[in-house]
Specification:
The complex is a heterodimer. By secondary structure, chain A is α/β, with parallel strands linked by helices. Chain A has two domains: 2-88 and 165-257, P-loop containing nucleotide triphosphate hydrolases (Rossmann fold), CATH 3.40.50; 98-163, no CATH class. Chain A contains nine helices and nine strands. Chain A has helices spanning 53-60, 82-86, 105-116, 120-134, 149-161, 179-196, 207-213, 231-236, 244-257; strands spanning 2-16, 22-37, 42-46, 68-73, 89-93, 167-171, 199-203, 216-221, 224-230. In chain A, strands 5-6-7-3-8-9 form a six-stranded mixed β-sheet, sandwiched between helices. In chain A, α6 (179-196) links the parallel β6 (167-171) and β7 (199-203). The radius of gyration of chain A is 19 Å and the shape is globular. By secondary structure, chain B is mainly alpha-helical. Chain B has one domain. Chain B has 13 helices and no strands. Chain B has helices spanning 2-16, 20-47, 56-77, 83-89, 91-96, 102-108, 116-133, 137-140, 142-167, 172-185, 195-203, 208-219, 235-255. The relative contact order of chain B is 0.14. Classes of the chains: A alpha/beta, B mainly alpha. The A-B interface holds A 11, 49, 54, 58, 61-65, 79, 82-84, 86-87, 89, 91, 93, 95-98, 102-103, 107, 110-112, 114-117, 171-172 and B 4, 7-8, 11, 14-15, 90, 93-94, 96-101, 105, 255, 257-259, 261-262.
Chain lengths: 258, 262
Amino acid sequence: MIELDGVGRSFTLRRKKGWLRGETRVVHAVRDLSFQVAAGEFVGYLGPNGAGKSTTIKMLTGILAPTSGHIEVAGLDPSRRRTALARRIGVVFGQRTTLWWDLPLKDSFHLIRLLYKVDREEHRKRLAELCEVLELGAFLDKPVRQLSLGQRVRGDIAAALLHDPLVLVLDEPTIGLDVVSKAAVRDFLRTLNAERGTTVLLTTHDLGDIERLCRRVMLIDHGSLAFDGTVEDLKATAPDETSIEDVVTRLYTRQARL
Amino acid sequence: MARTYVLLAVTWTRAAAQYPLSMALLTVGSFIVTGLDMAAIAVIFAHTTSLGGFTLPEVMFLYGTSGMSFALADMLFGNVDKLSQHVRAGTFDSMLIRPVSPFIQMAVDRFTFQRLGRTAQAATVLAIALAHLHVPWQRAWMIPLMVLCGIVLFTAIWTLGGAIQFLLTDAPDVANAFTYGGGQLTQYPLTVYGSDLVRTVTFIVPLAFVNWQPGLFILGRPDPFGLPYWLRFLAPVAALALACVAGLAWRAGLRRYRSTGS
């Protein structure tokens, strides 16, 4: 469902040194990244800040074009077939909403129906279903800017699923949520993956997400893959550590030392 | 694409209609502001009978056609030059994950029919001018074509302005110089400007094709700058050429988009 082959993305940074004079520096956010995710998998994508997680997500969704290598998501090259791909994937950014700030949630959903050209009847059914499971009913009429973070994230997740995508990509969906909201989001994602077979890729800093949801974990550091395996394999890399936090801390700091 | 645009425009208008007072005030406001523009021309003619060799109805004609093109282009696509704002706020990323071109999404963002105020004002001026001018139909067919080409030209310049912002995130003012500046420039007969400027807006930034060259044909006038007669039929060519350049620049810019933050 997701295939990366030798993918790299570099950014050229210019630092001003006086009038017209500048210094350019090339930063490799992602280098030579290759992995595959099969249909129906639930994958956690871990990495310290600045490791290249968000850059990867942006390349998978077609927001950024890779500078090298080849990507295929749901059978399409994201940067070349971005609009076609948009119908097959759902994207949630935990840190910022993809909804319209000043519009009531239900108007945002209406706009999404028009953008994705979802059949009216199908949309109604799907929305009712999502409203029930994600408990959106109470704040459908509120403008997005007035929603609490937990409500907003649930709204964003519903928005990403209204067109029934094959792949759901989530960038830190549980960031800043309280325990109850977190549990609700996790439950929902687990059911979605189990019952609908939607492939899920999620980045997070919350290791609880990984332990409770993901069968497979990938760890990226300094732009390349440092670990790829099951949660058990991950724990086995440091048998003397007791908690997953310690295991991951060890992996992050080991990478830093290398 | 046009269908999506209309559907989205209706949704935005409906959202804006939830604040009816603000909507009404904005409509009245835009009508008054543009009305003041017309008053400026009236003041000039209170002191002289011609402006750059053109009579009042002729100047009103040039003002009305330029105003129509500009106002319609602004209403439909004027938002496209807000790219850098969208990039900085991160909303551009959200547009890229939707199955509709970000160009359309940006253009229609917060669409309101209140922007029709300026179009209505320009149309009124044009109607008054045409009532005085008695343009024969052998030349009048050019009027709708000219307004359409004007819309394309202004939209293309806005698009170019947006495309530049993929590279320089604080350059909207560069584009404004050409769009809002161009809107102002074409309100008056180009004879009030120097001939170097006229050559520039004819051959480099083709603003002269918004209403000047085709306008000379409609008014049946010789070119005061002595430029070739066939130029007055070139508006569609100029519009198409600039639209192609703008389209390519937009695509190139989108490939170079770097996004921001996490």
